[in-house]
Structure to design on (354 residues):
């Protein structure tokens, strides 16, 4: 198999009304499998959050990463996603989250490091258009001189790669530190002692409303790779709703790594 | 017992385990690393289960490596990094 180019694929855009955290987790699994099965063209999905959440990585320990009592106190749902990587603290309106469901051929022959950078090259360009000099910080961060902007994670299913990213638009750092347990060991080679200082949100860097940042990002993707408006098919939503209920909202999955 | 190791240029590897009569029990590897397929996590836990608490890093890394199928992909984590985290958990447990 030779590596394919972005423009060789018929990219679809999905950007719907806000959805619950567990449904987002399920949609990522369903959409990845739909693209893998050839029933759906490669797709970019922009998320809107219906409620606050902590999203932990596939291999993270629930109790090591999250103060569950604090999460409950703040009304924050804890969900586990299907990809590895670290915990994300989400409040509606405070993050920009997107998923790319891409054919594996797009990253064929690339190292993991190259594959992550390739999947977000359009975002680096979009941020550049917004006046932010950003770059890829291996293994899986988008950063600028002012601090970390986003974290990415990939998961592979058959012939498809899921690449999803959460960008900080605005952040309640005090609440985040109340809910997430961020240990010293994790920060040991980051050169900073303060977890809150590690993130610098897009709002302060762009001065633009969140919707405007998203619109500019979509424009950039469209200009570079082509993009057509699409919607979630009824059978996809039905599958995802079932999966959200049976798997992603269940303690068995969320505490799978206790 | 609990041990953590941030692999240089990689991700955080966390180990929680118990020691019963000189052997590792209830070994749980966790962290913000990437592993494909995700079922490989269970293979790693299972490989460490029952290992002698005196096993050194090289031995533990080898045990993990042997347990991994050829198609397993690791990003930000390695058998050696997991072994370091195990030794740290055992060391900190010994001090406690």
């Amino acid at each position: 198999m030779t590596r394919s180019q972005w423009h060789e694929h018929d990219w679809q855009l999905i950007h719907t009304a806000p959805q619950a955290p567990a449904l987002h987790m399920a949609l990522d699994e369903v959409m990845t499998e739909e693209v893998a099965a050839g029933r759906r063209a490669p797709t970019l999905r922009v998320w809107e959050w219906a409620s606050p959440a902590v999203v932990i990585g596939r291999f993270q320990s629930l109790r090591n990463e999250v103060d569950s009592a604090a999460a409950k106190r703040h009304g924050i749902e804890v969900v586990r996603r299907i990809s590895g990587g670290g915990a994300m603290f989400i409040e509606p309106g405070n993050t920009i989250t997107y998923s790319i469901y891409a054919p594996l051929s797009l990253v064929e022959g690339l190292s993991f490091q190259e594959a992550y950078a390739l999947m977000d090259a359009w975002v680096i360009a979009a941020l550049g258009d917004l006046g932010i000099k950003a770059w890829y910080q291996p293994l899986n961060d988008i950063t600028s001189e002012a601090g970390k902007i986003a974290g990415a994670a990939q998961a592979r299913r058959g012939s498809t790669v899921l690449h999803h990213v959460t960008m900080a638009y605005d952040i309640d750092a005090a609440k985040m530190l109340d809910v997430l347990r961020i240990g010293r060991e994790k920060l040991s080679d980051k050169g900073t002692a303060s977890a809150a200082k590690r993130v610098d949100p897009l709002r302060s860097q762009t001065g633009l409303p969140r919707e405007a940042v998203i619109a500019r990002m979509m424009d950039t993707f469209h200009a570079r790779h082509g993009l057509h408006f699409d919607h979630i098919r009824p059978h996809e939503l039905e599958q995802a709703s079932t999966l959200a209920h049976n798997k992603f909202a269940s303690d068995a999955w969320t505490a799978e790594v206790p | 017992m609990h041990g953590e190791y941030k692999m240089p240029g990689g991700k955080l590897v966390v180990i929680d385990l118990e020691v019963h009569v000189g052997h590792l029990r209830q070994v749980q590897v966790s962290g913000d690393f990437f592993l494909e397929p995700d079922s490989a996590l269970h293979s790693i836990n299972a490989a460490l289960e029952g290992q002698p608490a005196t096993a050194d890093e090289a031995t533990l890394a080898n045990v993990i490596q042997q347990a991994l199928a050829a198609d397993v992909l690791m990003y930000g984590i390695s058998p050696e990094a997991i072994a370091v985290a195990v030794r740290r958990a055992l060391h900190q447990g010994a001090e406690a």
